[in-house]
Amino acid sequence: SENKTALRPFGMKDKLGYMFGDFGNDFTFILSSLFLMKFYTDVMGVSAGVVGIVMMAARIVDAFTDLIMGKIMDNGKSPKGKCRPWFLRMAIPAFVAIVALFTVPAGLTGFAQVAYLFLSNVFLTAIVSTAIMIPYSAILVMRTKSLEERNKMGIFRAAAGYVIGMVIAIALVPLTNMLGSNGVADQAAYIKFAVVVGALSMIFLFILYKTSKETAA
């Protein structure tokens, strides 16, 4: 009976909940990887070379925190499981991290500015996103032994990534221009956009927490 339980198909609630989880994390990934360069260079006036170094350094840190997070999760002893608690724990930090990317203090220059860019990127990509994605990927393995069922969930996950990528790609420029001064995107416009995106990410992670399970029982 244990094998039957482990192989029980996922229902639509499971699939939609898992998809919402990808919504929540894709906001962070897409904003930090695709549009942050535009904000830093066009709005904050940081050179593309400095931005490239900052982002590369943050990714290097991320490679190490992935390993650390795996160990932390494996050693977890929460009654809610090893994976699920992290979705709840990271919901509010995800909101803070997304907004922090764009709230670069205007008075910062030189090393202080670079330090802020680096730390805010590390906070988002190497800490918050890692603490979501490692459990998010692992929970399927805990939930089912069926490769077929995992592949089906992967389709919903890929669809979520496509939808979020398309929405942000279409909405970012016109919305930030609309929210900016005289139809031009400024820092305040990006912050407003980040608050909305951060709030949605937080809500999606709450939904993921409520709908996810670590066993099929």
Give the secondary structure arrangement, pairings included.
Blueprint: H1 2-6, H2 12-43, H3 48-74, H4 84-89, H5 91-102, H6 110-143, H7 147-179, H8 187-211
Helix pairs in contact: 2-3, 2-5, 2-6, 2-7, 2-8, 3-6, 5-6, 5-8, 7-8
Folded structure, characterized:
This protein is mainly α and 217 residues long. Helices cover 80% and strands 0% of the residues. It contains eight helices and no strands. Helix 2 (12-43) packs parallel to helix 5 (91-102) and helix 2 packs antiparallel against helix 6 (110-143). The protein is globular.
This entry's quaternary arrangement is single chain
Structural class: mainly alpha
Shape: globular
The Cα radius of gyration reads: 19 Å
Low-confidence stretches: 1-7
Count the E strands. 0
Residue-averaged pLDDT: 82
Percent helix: over 70%
First-residue to last-residue Cα separation: 11 Å
Number of helices: 8
